[in-house]
Predict the 3D structure of the following.
Amino acid sequence: MNGHPEARARRDYILEQKRGFGRRVIGVFPAYYPRELLLSMNILPVEIWDPPLESSHANAHLQSYICSVVKQGLELILQGKCRDLDAFLFPHTCDSIQNLASIVNDYLGIEKPCYFFYHPKAPYKESSRWYYIKQLEDLALRLEKQFGPLNHHEFKKKVEQGEDLRRTIGELYRRRAEGTLGLSNVEFYRILRQVEYLHPDDFLPVLTAILKRPPDRKSKGLAVIVSGILPNPPEVLEHLDRLGINVADDDFLSCSRRLLARPAISTVPFEAMADSYFGMQPCCTKGSAIEDRLKSILDKAKSSSAKGVIFQMVKFCEPELFDVPILVEGLKAEGLATLVIDTELNQGMSGQLVTRLEAFAEMIG
């Protein structure tokens, strides 16, 4: 991974944060976790989604039908490319990530602490909020044993900064949906995905500088919604740019589903974090009702004038595979075109996929 330009930039940044700011670094697997809690303890969360590696070791530990998010994450560890990390955090996202957590914590013999975070799943009950806050408090107590006591003043500041970050990302999405942002599909997600490792002190100014640019009122072109776990392979975005198709909004787990939320009501840090969690968009990994997710995608399509929805599936992702057939049926019933593509991470574009995207462009044009 160290030979890949983005990987080099990420590792350089991690080392700069450790040496220059004395920060500890935790490798975080997808997807929902209390970022502000970690930041308030001077911990930099670095997310592990799709490291650009050739898989040579992970297959010996995993079934052949495991999704490549898990496979690539394990490969990163087995190739010894997590030496700069101080620990790992595994949220309870799906069975495959739970299996990965067990492999890393119980069988690999790595000398790094592993933390686990069990956020509640829908349908939510009155006890769900209490349970979520209790999970936050328990995680804080476990982290304190390795990283020192939680500074509650700093915690409040980081929660407020998290609210500011969500508002800023929301404005970025709004400007894109109305066609005035002036970023290509590739540029938008290259910038947005820096949230996966940049400290908010560094990431917020990047977004603010973009929003300060004068509105770009060029023709919007054909608009679509893209749904899935994450925007990978990135060549899909590149080809959509070449076809003149704008991704006007998304339903990506790595992006809008977890980065956008209703504003928090409470000013008490743990309560505010619960407000944000329960105010996020519907997601299959949280057990959300398919009807809620369908409504969310339809609302995005209406507000952005999208002509269709592309489901960019990670092969063998069971939570997504359960939802997609019903979502496709519901979207078609509302007159929206759909395209489902099934890929492995970092695999590039096959000739067949190019043809299918071009046919989809003709259909919605």
Notes: Strands lie at 24-28, 43-47, 87-91, 114-117, 222-228, 245-252, 308-314, 337-343. DSSP finds 14 helices and eight strands in the chain. Residues 5-150 form a domain with the Rossmann fold fold (CATH 3.40.50.11890). The two ends are 40 Å apart (CA to CA).
